[in-house]
Amino acid sequence: MTTTQTTQTTPTAETRHDPYPTRLSHAIEPIPRADPTVWGSEADGPLNQKNLDHFSSQGYLVRHGTVTNDWLPHLRQEMDRIAADLDHDDPRVIREPGGSIRSIFEPHLLSDLVAQVVRLDTVLPVARQLLGSDVYIHQARINMMPGFTGTGFYWHSDFETWHAEDGMPAIRAVSCSIALTRNYPYNGSLMVIPGSHQTFYPCVGETPQDNHDTSLVAQTVGVPDETTLTKAVDHAGIDQFTGAAGSALWFDANLLHGSGSNITPLPRSNVFLVFNSVDNALEEPFAAPRRRPEYLAARRVAPVT
């Protein structure tokens, strides 16, 4: 009697099904979203049905007073302390071409105060409700846009990068941007294309090796072309996040967003928290040669409690 031995193989980027192909050699049509936007219900958290419906249709929600005034001076001091404590060549510190700090990653691991913000009743339950599960921090950072020198972020979908370069399989992540300073219409505040989260826009161009070394300063790969952006804006327009310090902008991982440079004397800074569902753990990158560092894409799925 003879036996046949079979070998099981793990799907590779070439063999596994990819519902959101991107970083392609040629343009293809936009892809309708296959995943829900809101995974929980009104009974699962603090957002009422009107809030959930707005988030589902528009892809974002503004929550004023997420962080109260008694927290804000301490958070701004923490921002300055973290920036001063880190070595100049620490890879978690991203600098503008002129040398000023643009972003600092993993602030929730560098500051007990920021870690407390993650767990606030105005923050964590919202993330759990929107994603319909326990959550963990996929990525966190402090964004700084100083007066006169702060440069913007070009139009992009975060999920496109997280899918292509980090292996996030489904659109089941949400970002919470908490303003540490007042956001005016003229100091580089975030702009969004409402409803654009319902469509995945595949991008053209292969991911370079260690793309994050440059993309975190100026993203040129993984961004929609101008014709695509024009059509999206013609269809839905542009909304802008403005408001007092302590306000939070929640937005879907696939929402197209960007910001202009800050040429005013008024600085803009925010704490940026990305929550991912524990049921949406990262796989291997779908369109990049290797994984990005842990401080950009956490692979240890530890539910925030």
DSSP E strands, number: 13
State the end-to-end CA separation.
Answer: 56 Å
Strand fraction band? 15-25%
Q: In CATH terms, what is the architecture?
A: Sandwich
SS-derived structural category: alpha+beta
Order of helices and strands: EHEHEEHHHEEHEEEHHEEEE
- What ranges have pLDDT less than 50 throughout 5 or more consecutive residues? 1-11
Number of helices: 8
Corresponding CATH superfamily: q2cbj1_9rhob like domain
CATH class: Mainly Beta
Per the CATH scheme, the topology name is Jelly Rolls
Number of domains: 1
Q: Please, what is the average pLDDT?
A: 93
- Based on CA inertia axes, which overall geometry fits? globular
The amount of helix comes to 10-25%
Question: Largest beta sheet: what is the strand line-up?
Answer: 2-11-7-13-5-4-3
Query: How would a crystallographer describe the biggest sheet?
Result: 7 strands, antiparallel
Query: C-alpha Rg, in Å?
Result: 19 Å
Region (Disordered): 1-23
Pfam families: PhyH
InterPro entries: EctD, Phytyl_CoA_dOase-like
Cofactor: Fe(2+)
Q: What order do the helices and strands come in, and which of them pair?
A:
Blueprint: E1 31-32, H1 49-58, E2 60-63, H2 72-85, E3 93-95, E4 101-105, H3 107-110, H4 112-118, H5 124-131, E5 135-145, E6 153-156, H6 158-166, E7 173-179, E8 191-192, E9 199-200, H7 212-215, H8 226-236, E10 239-240, E11 248-252, E12 257-259, E13 268-277
Written account of the structure:
With 305 residues, the chain is α+β, with helices and mostly antiparallel strands. The chain has one domain: Jelly Rolls (Sandwich). The chain has eight helices and 13 strands. A hairpin with a 5-residue loop joins β3 and β4.
